[in-house]
Specification:
The two termini are 17 Å apart. Helix 4 runs antiparallel to helix 5. The chain is mostly helical and 127 residues long. It has five helices and no strands.
Length: 127
């Protein structure tokens, strides 16, 4: 593609689509705090980590949307997504868990591409 404006527009839309799940997920964890802590505990993850999870999802997602420190945020969300996959979606006897694991791998791949490509011109970073 030899159209930089189109490429930058695609990066903007891609950033928004990748980050949407994390921003909404972080917000829903605030609204359903006790339930989320209980779910985490049922998977063997200490509920005391929930504030960190919310920060990574909400702040990291917003950083991706606006394109601020995009490469760093993309790398952090890549690692977070892989960790969440391993901690919460390894029960492949349940087809839905296998699907969620594979979806998370695809999202993690999107974050790696964003890390490599940068945010584009329509961002705070402008890279």
């Amino acid at each position: 593609m030899n159209n930089p404006a189109l490429g930058d527009a695609a990066k903007l839309v891609g950033r928004i689509l990748l980050a949407l799940m994390f921003v909404l997920g972080g917000w829903s964890k605030i609204n359903g705090y006790a339930g989320t802590q209980a779910y985490m505990a049922s998977a063997g993850v200490p509920g005391i980590l929930l504030p960190l999870v919310i920060i990574v999802e909400l702040i990291g997602g917003l950083m991706i949307v606006v394109g601020y420190k995009t490469r760093l945020a993309a790398l952090a969300l890549f690692a977070f997504t892989i960790a969440a996959s391993v901690l919460f979606h390894m029960n492949w006897a349940q087809p839905m868990q296998q699907l969620l694991f594979m979806k998370n791998l695809a999202v993690a791949g999107g974050f790696l591409v964003l890390f490599a490509a940068g945010a584009g011109a329509y961002s705070v970073d402008k890279d």
